[in-house]
Design brief:
Layout: H1 10-21, H2 25-38, E1 43-49, E2 55-60, H3 67-72, H4 100-106, E3 109-115, E4 122-128, E5 131-138, E6 143-149, H5 156-161, H6 165-182, E7 187-192, E8 195-200, H7 205-213, E9 221-227, E10 232-238, E11 250-254, E12 257-259, H8 262-270, E13 284-289, E14 295-296, E15 307-308, H9 311-328, H10 395-398, H11 413-421, E16 427-429, E17 433-437, E18 441-446, H12 447-464, E19 473-482, H13 485-500, E20 504-507, E21 512-518, H14 527-542, H15 549-561, H16 571-582, E22 597-601, H17 602-608
Parallel strand pairs: 1-7, 11-13
Antiparallel strand pairs: 1-2, 2-6, 3-4, 3-6, 4-5, 7-8, 9-10, 10-13, 11-12, 14-15, 16-17, 17-18, 18-22, 19-21, 20-21
The protein binds adenosine-5'-diphosphate (ADP) and magnesium ion.
């Protein structure tokens, strides 16, 4: 039999390797930024077009490369950072595996321009799909510029797999922040489609954090500082009163490398136990330094997963350091945490007059009020037509079944209620479920999901109305909310939708927004949290194939606005809630697809009671 094994050509091997190292534009950005840092750059520019699909370019003023290095750097396992196996235990650079550029060049069209500082001429290499097209001398600035064009041009499957621009951009943003936070001695600019997203000057870590994460950071953190024989920990931990609804601002760096380490994160969070509400997350930025021989960064190609030799000790030290910071500085004066830009956003900037809210305010608005179909001004969704699509299982709920002389065609929510109230008023169980009797059995309604459904349909109805009269509540004081630039941009795109729903919101800068009115059910004491959650949900929904912007926004707000389990409601509120539920187009399913109600019928009961 003939031999069948052959060695893969480099271009194929590189493409396979690229699958691990470069899975989306953000991972290419990470590699290029890290190379710039390793090259000793003090200024780095990142230029992105179409969320990295068309172009991602990193320009640095680092050491540059010689002519032959410029060509060699695209070979697999080509690295200047280690020479022997022993070097693996003394790694101080971000890269060392020598596979990033080879991988990127295998799946894109790459143009490299580079010049060493003591050379007059630089060199320009063009490489496409691992194939070197040309190398010529060129004039260029000292340092290196790598432009990656049409990423995955030769792998349509992967290119098609990329998410919407907003999502890819937010991945790039996250990668950028992880590099920029820790390299505070480097100045960075980031452009996306010609728009300046970041302009970070060098400064201390606190300034860098404030510059990246918005001005809201200023009074939100305590400093951490702990030195032991095996580790030193510096950084900042969020005050317990400034927890967020998402894990967004949680960063641990080991030897200046962002790492993902669930056990260490848990150690930090443990220090907060009992201090913060459930399902909220403290923010932290912790910079750990350990001897390179006591950390293994080579367990994963992207090097974000690492192992420590002294894991248990580290765990205890981090937890203690955090506890100490929270306790020790609890009453101390605020730390210097001002952004390097001299703008103070803690209040609206001087000269800024918050605009009149653009929505009318209905002081009599009551979310539980029973609506008639003509009362559109109070924000009710009309129930006409909705019943037609109602699953026949629930048809009975709509039909009056009492002996009283009701006319079936004359359906209205109050008819449904009459049916349910007779013979009994709905009951509340654990402030979570509503229980009522029907002719066909016992109705159990999940209160929170039901309310979510009602609010969702109401918000959607408003979005679709042309003459919008939305319930809105003027805030006592305007509230400033801050976001990362890319989140800010995303929120900016939603501003019109939010106004339709009762928010009076305006952009002050790209990352700061002022809210002067909000829909009545929104928790106006935590608007930052509401908008943070909205962004998280929105990004999550946009990942899905049949994403619908309106739905995503309404769904997130409805979920946040819905009355929470455990909160007592008045009997009339419960009654109104049921009435509104049955007036919905799809009363039996919550906006996120869960059942809102269940009917235990007679047979089922009989079965259980056998
Ligand atoms: P690694 O970073 O793991 O060494 P890469 O494929 O990312 O592997 O880069 C290969 C080599 O190319 C690096 O070791 C370095 O010598 C050189 N190089 C890459 N980017 C730059 C840059 N921006 N400036 C100077 N040299 C660079
Ligand atoms: Mg590298």
């Amino acid at each position: 039999m003939s031999d069948i094994i052959n060695l893969l050509p480099d271009s194929v091997a590189n493409q396979i390797a690229a699958g691990e190292v470069v899975d989306r534009p953000a991972s290419a950005v990470k590699e290029l930024l890290e190379n710039a840092i390793d090259a000793g750059a003090t200024n780095v520019q990142l230029v992105i077009k179409d969320a990295g699909r068309t172009l991602l370019q990193v320009i640095d003023n680092g050491c540059g490369m010689s002519d032959s290095d410029a060509r060699l750097c695209f070979e697999r396992h080509a690295t200047s950072k280690i020479h022997a196996a022993d070097d693996l235990f003394a790694i101080r650079t971000m890269g060392f595996r020598g596979e990033a550029l080879a991988s990127i060049a295998a799946v894109a069209q790459v143009e490299l321009r580079t010049r060493q500082h003591d050379n007059d001429l630089g060199t320009c290499v063009i490489i496409e799909g691992s194939d070197v097209k040309s190398q010529e001398p060129c004039t260029c600035n000292a340092g290196t510029s790598i432009a990656v064009k049409n990423l995955f041009y030769n792998i349509p499957a992967r290119r098609n797999f990329l998410k919407k621009d907003g999502v890819e951009l937010s991945h790039i943003d996250e990668v950028f922040r992880r590099v920029a936070v820790v390299n505070n001695h480097v100045s960075f600019t980031v452009y996306s489609n010609g728009k300046l997203l970041y302009d970070l000057r060098e400064g201390n870590k606190a300034q860098r954090i404030a510059d990246i994460f918005g001005m809201g950071s200023s009074e939100h953190f305590y400093p951490v500082s702990e030195r032991t024989d095996i580790v030193s920990v510096e950084g900042y931990v969020g005050k317990p009163e400034y927890v967020r609804k998402t894990r967004g601002e949680q960063y641990i760096f080991a030897n200046d490398r962002f790492i993902r380490h669930p056990a260490l994160s848990a150690a930090v969070e443990k220090a907060y136990s009992d201090l913060i509400p459930e399902r909220t997350y403290p923010s932290y930025f912790l910079f750990i330094q350990v001897d390179p021989s006591r950390i293994d960064v080579n367990i994963h190609p992207t090097k974000t997963e690492v192992r420590f030799v002294d894991e248990h000790a580290l765990f205890a030290i981090l937890r203690a350091a955090t506890k100490k910071a929270i306790g020790q500085f609890g009453l101390a004066t605020e730390i210097e945490f001002n952004p390097s830009t001299e703008i103070d956003f803690s209040d609206a900037p001087s000269g800024y007059i918050p605009p009149e809210p653009r929505v009318s305010y209905n002081p009599n608005y009551n979310p539980f009020e029973q609506k008639t179909s003509s009362s559109s001004s109070s924000g009710a969704s009309t129930h006409s037509g909705g019943n037609a699509s109602w699953d026949s299982t629930y048809a009975e709920l709509r039909r009056p079944t009492t002996v009283e002389s009701r006319i079936v065609e004359d359906e209205s929510p109050s008819d449904e209620m009459a049916e349910m109230n007779s013979p009994s008023m709905p009951l509340s169980y654990m402030n979570t479920y509503i229980i009522s009797t029907l002719k066909s059995g016992i109705l159990v309604v999940d209160r929170q999901r039901a309310h979510e459904r009602i609010l969702f349909e109401r918000l959607m109805a408003h979005k679709q109305q042309t003459d919008k009269v939305t319930a809105s509540q003027q805030l006592l004081f305007p509230v400033n909310c801050t976001f990362s630039p890319s989140d800010g941009e995303m929120l900016g795109e939603m501003i019109g939708d939010l106004r339709d729903m009762g928010f009076a919101i305006d952009a002050v800068t790209q990352s700061t927004f002022v809210v002067t009115a909000a829909p009545p059910d929104v928790n106006d004491s935590d608007l930052q949290g509401v908008l943070d959650q909205l962004l998280v949900d929105y990004k999550g929904s946009m990942m899905q194939k049949f994403a619908d912007k309106d739905r995503a926004i309404c769904q997130s707000l409805a979920r946040q606005m819905a009355v929470k389990n455990g909160k007592p409601l008045q009997p009339e509120e419960i009654q109104a809630l049921l009435a509104e539920l049955f007036a919905c187009q799809v009363p039996n399913i919550s906006p996120s697809g869960q059942k809102t109600m269940y009917v235990i019928n007679k047979d089922e009961l009989a079965e259980k009671l056998r």
